Amino acid sequence: MSSALIIRHTPYEGIAGFRQPVEEAGFVIDRVDVTDPAFPAIDFLGPDLVVLMGGPMGVYEREAHPWIDCEIARLALRIAAGRPTLAVCLGAQMVAAAMGARVFPGPVREIGFAPIILNEAGARSPLRHIAGVPVLHWHGDTFDVPEGVELLATSAAYPQAFRRGANLLALQCHPEMGEDPRVEAWLADSGDHLREAGTDAERIRLDYAAKGPAAVAAGRTMIREWLAGLDID
């Protein structure tokens, strides 16, 4: 059996809809929270797959979150070794930082369901399974696309997905979310951010119910194909 380690930056942002395809692919899932006292000693090179999830903090908030530098340093080693890595939202920003790119607050917040825009490379990638499908966005930070990666998709404002070879996939959006009830934790105390994005909690709840299942189904198909193409020693 292969091993998968889920890095959680906050307890309410877990693997969600991606659990099913990861387990179907034969991975035994373990998880660690960045606030766990054991986190600084975790070997990022050991697991066959590392999945970095989202979180409300910014990569640049390093004084408030001392684990960020530690995570980026170990993540850089994993990326350099070409070990299979999947990253979502904050996770994608952490990957960008680990590859030497700038991560910074963007000019707008993107919160709500909307499709991403695939380029030619994205249309030939597993992301084609989410083409035209409204998926959940929940971010205000963005990043410069790292050197040496292939940009796959954008939104109106930001890069949304990139990859390097078969083993690294980074997603700014959340195709794993649409059925997980922990979205209520995302909505709690998010009123200001929702207003900045031109939406509200009730709109998100309605869209989550109406659009979420299709988003998760498409996201699972995407991840199944990506996992099938991994190069695992």
Structure description:
- The chain is an alpha/beta fold and 233 residues long.
- It has one domain (2-228): Rossmann fold, CATH 3.40.50.
- Helices cover 31% and strands 26% of the residues.
- It contains 7 helices and 10 strands.
- It has helices at 19-24, 67-80, 90-98, 120-123, 183-187, 191-196, 201-228, and strands spanning 2-8, 27-33, 49-52, 85-88, 103-114, 117-118, 135-143, 150-154, 159-164, 168-171.
- The strands form 2 sheets. Strands 2-1-3-4-10-9-8-6 form an 8-stranded mixed β-sheet. Strands 5-7 form a two-stranded antiparallel sheet.
- A hairpin with a 4-residue loop joins strand 8 (150-154) and strand 9 (159-164).
- Helix 2 (67-80) packs across helix 3 (90-98).
- It is globular, with a radius of gyration of 16 Å.
- The protein starts with a strand and ends in a 5-residue tail after the last helix.
Features:
233 residues, 8-stranded mixed beta sheet, alpha/beta, Rossmann fold
